[in-house]
Write a structure and sequence with these properties.
By secondary structure, the protein is α+β, with helices and mostly antiparallel strands. The chain folds into four domains: 19-87 and 230-265, no CATH class; 92-214, no CATH class; 285-342 and 363-426, no CATH class; 431-500, no CATH class. 50% of the residues lie in helices and 8% in strands. It has a four-stranded mixed sheet with strand order 4-5-3-10. It has a two-stranded antiparallel sheet with strand order 1-2. Helix 6 (116-131) packs parallel to helix 20. The two termini are 47 Å apart.
Length: 501
């Protein structure tokens, strides 16, 4: 950026995708990535160039250490079964946060005051730090996995909303460099027993406060008018000057490009050769006719698929997905699968990020019809692992996992490979959660709009009222709230049209 005559400035934006490793170290000195000297040293240590390095790892500096196990990055990196070096860090949060959100949304809210929903929103935000047992904490992937392994072993005893704190995890793990932790189930159980009274007291606190807030207690007067703006900072002035000279600066997605140059996914996407399962043989013409008739009458996805359908993951046709269950009965179903599509429209990205979205923004899932065995990879792994979320798996991931599929047989899946894929795509979890929250807000806004217009308010009056409520709940200018409501109602139409496709 160079100054020219007057107050104008000329801007040259570097092509970050083409920057060499030294250039990346210059523009992102406090970050780490596949370009750092330390990462190259780690790869040399393991004697491979196959690397999986996630966004959380890239967002921290090379000297970061895990607050849970105390290991440095070179000590955390380990070799996966695929021969890939895993460099993964994970954001850990207390699951009581989800319990709080669900409790406030599920409680029967009473009262017709227009600022009532604002009171609910403010109260939920104020209660969160009082309810959680620990703040969001970045820890290494092995510490995060240790919690999941322990809760899976103790699933019949430990409450599903309970989360071990980082300091508690440190007590039940045995640590070694470049390897998964060993876990002590007995120690973990003792920690759960010690924490039970405090944990259930917090659960009770959430329930009581949700009821009190719903009844209009703990009210806090809402300030009318526009909010005050903070003192102008130097960076604000510089950014404004840049934006004037480069109107498309928002569409450059510089942060996303830096992340893309930093992360690596090599190795985890390569097909694993596995022995095929022996198929049980196809159904006879009469058996398939019976299966087809039964599914057509009970499974709408089977009807939607049509006769020429083939699973987009394993490429098997309807007759080829039919297989016998353990009891000998024929089973064959088609399920709906939501493939993530990412937002690229500049205006949409601006509005979504105004509402808290990060660098990765989901536009709307694209619906695909897949067979029961491919869909079963997601559902079965959800049951198998308590702390890894299989929602992040894509159609391409499923195609890789079932590359050696067999007709008329269940898929033979490597569970460790599934786990590696989920860990590799964990950066998408926040985007999925944000999109689901966006859907809920859009739906709630649309329902409120219909209710107000049916009660006698005009279209403009309903929009103004909802806009006021949103603005005050989020500490925005009233005009910004009204514009946001217009956009939310447009989103309701867009998402509804998307679901109908």
């Amino acid at each position: 950026m160079t100054r020219s005559k007057g107050t104008k400035i000329s801007i040259v934006v570097p092509s970050i995708e083409q920057l060499d490793d030294e250039g990346m170290r210059a523009i992102a000195p406090l970050r780490d990535g596949r370009w750092s000297e330390q990462t190259k040293s780690i790869l040399a240590k393991f004697g491979t160039q196959m690397l999986s390095l996630n966004r959380s790892w890239a967002a921290t500096w090379t000297g970061w250490t895990c607050p849970c196990c105390g290991r440095s990055k070179p000590q955390i990196a380990r070799l996966a079964s695929s021969g890939t070096v895993l460099c993964h860090l994970e954001q850990r949060h207390d699951h009581l946060e989800e319990f709080l959100k669900r409790r406030f949304s599920a409680v029967d809210l009473q009262g017709d005051e227009r600022d009532h929903r604002i009171q609910i929103s403010h109260a939920e935000a104020a209660l969160r730090p009082l309810v959680e047992r620990f703040e969001r904490t970045l820890i290494c992937v092995d510490c995060n996995l240790s919690d999941g392994r322990v809760k899976l072993a103790l699933r019949d005893e430990v409450d599903s909303h309970f989360t071990f704190t980082p300091s508690e995890i440190a007590e039940f793990i045995t640590v070694s460099d470049n390897h998964l932790h060993e876990v002590n189930i007995t120690t973990a159980h003792s920690l759960w027993v010690d924490a039970q009274e405090d944990f259930y007291d917090r659960i009770d606190f959430v329930k009581r406060m949700a009821k009190r807030i719903a009844k209009g207690r703990h009210k806090r007067e809402i300030a009318l008018g526009q909010k005050l703006h903070r003192q102008v900072q130097t960076r604000d002035v510089v950014y404004q000057l840049c934006a004037e000279q480069l109107p498309s600066i928002h569409s450059l997605h510089l942060g996303e490009i830096i992340d893309s140059r930093s992360v690596a996914r090599g190795g985890l996407g390569e097909t694993l050769q596995r022995s095929k399962k022996h198929g049980g043989g196809p159904p006879t013409d009469a058996e398939f006719a019976a299966i087809n008739a039964a599914q057509a009458s009970t499974n709408r996805h089977w009807r939607e698929a049509g006769e020429a359908w083939a699973c987009p993951c394993c490429e098997r046709a309807k007759r080829e997905i039919c297989r016998r269950s353990n009891r000998g009965a024929w089973t064959a179903r088609i399920h709906s699968f939501e493939e993530l599509e990412f937002e690229t429209d500049t205006e949409q990205l601006s509005m979504r990020r105004q509402n808290g979205a990060g660098d990765i923004v989901i536009s709307a899932p694209r619906r695909e019809l897949i067979c029961q065995d491919c869909r079963g990879i997601v559902s079965q792994f959800r049951q198998r692992s308590a702390d890894l979320d299989a929602r992040v798996l894509s159609l391409e991931d499923l195609r890789i996992l079932v590359a050696c599929s067999t007709k008329n047989a269940a898929h033979d899946i490597d569970s460790e490979r599934v786990e590696e894929m989920i860990v590799d795509r964990s950066a998408f979890l926040d985007a999925i959660d944000e999109f689901e929250a966006h859907q809920r807000l859009v739906t709630a806004t649309w329902i409120e709009y219909l209710k107000l217009t049916k009660s006698g308010l005009s279209d403009a009056q309903a929009r103004d009222l909802i806009g006021f409520e949103l603005a005050k709940a989020r500490d925005w200018d009233v005009d910004d709230g009204e514009d946001f409501v217009d956009w939310l109602l447009d989103e309701a139409e867009r998402l509804s049209a998307k679901r109908r496709k």
